[in-house]
């Protein structure tokens, strides 16, 4: 029955259009593609007009799936056309292999879109713009790394399945794996950095030592995690430079993560003043500065005498802020205002150097320093 229909189409094309067999086949293929494109346009237009206005998410889904839908309709129409076209069995087998590869590519493409849509739907519950975005950064990082790993796996499986659909390639692959030997070892060594980074990506997605927008300190540089790929991490430094670090770095080497559990941080300000400084008055001023600053989160404000040196006293002020940038700005603000307060209210409390001058003649005759009238000078 199929063969009768096949030659009926050929007879119609030959009788009406006066075309040879190969040109009739091309005409059928072109006509099938045109019909598939028209059908795709009608389906997309109908779905958008009926569901797009009321359901914007459905419209977004249609936009992403427009390409796979077009390819699916073309493969379906060409499968029908090849069945009725006047071609021999060898040419039909070649066309069948091409359509099989196209169908496998369609499945891989659809899987990639499904992973992308699924990850976006899952991440809609989280917002990185929130003030305390720790949970959002955790899930965005995890989903992003796992999505890239899934995309890589889908692409590899799609290409491998497409190649294995050809008998010649399948036999070559089997013989290649059977005689791997030194070549296999060389390929394994060459691919070791890639494989180590992929494994590190899975470890980071599960354990999450870093997340997007985390503040980190490594290699003497301070910055924010801007991008995490399957092989490297991009860190935006404080002066807007970018540091690119292999993904395996965060598994193999130590680094500081300032926002591991929470974005809040405690900043420290050190002052070196004279022993005559009124610590309690300065503590009250620190509290006043913290309360007036919008950068302070209202949790920690402390002023302590952290050390006493031979000429100065070390004061350490601790203040908490909601984030690392806020903590840095708060430290600078407090340091500036405390110094200004000392200059205005307690200038004698600034660091000074004391010198004792003894009359030379009296000291030469054997008088002790306690018996000689001293003349003291103080220099700042």
Characterize this entry briefly:
The protein is 59% helix and 17% strand.
Number of helices: 13
Q: Rg to the nearest angstrom? A: 38 Å
Task: Please state how the strands of the largest beta sheet are arranged side by side.
Answer: 4-3-2-1-5
Strand fraction equals 15-25%
How would you spell out the order of helices and strands? HHHHHHHHHEEEEHEEHEEHEHE
How helix-rich are the residues, as a percent range?
A: 55-70%
Write down how many β-strands occur, each being a DSSP E stretch of 2 or more residues: 10
What composes the largest sheet? 5 strands, antiparallel
Any idea how many domains?
3
Could you report the average pLDDT, rounded to the nearest whole number? 75
Uncertain segments: 1-8, 173-187, 370-379
Shape: elongated
> How does the helix and strand content classify structurally?
alpha+beta
Cα separation of the termini: 110 Å
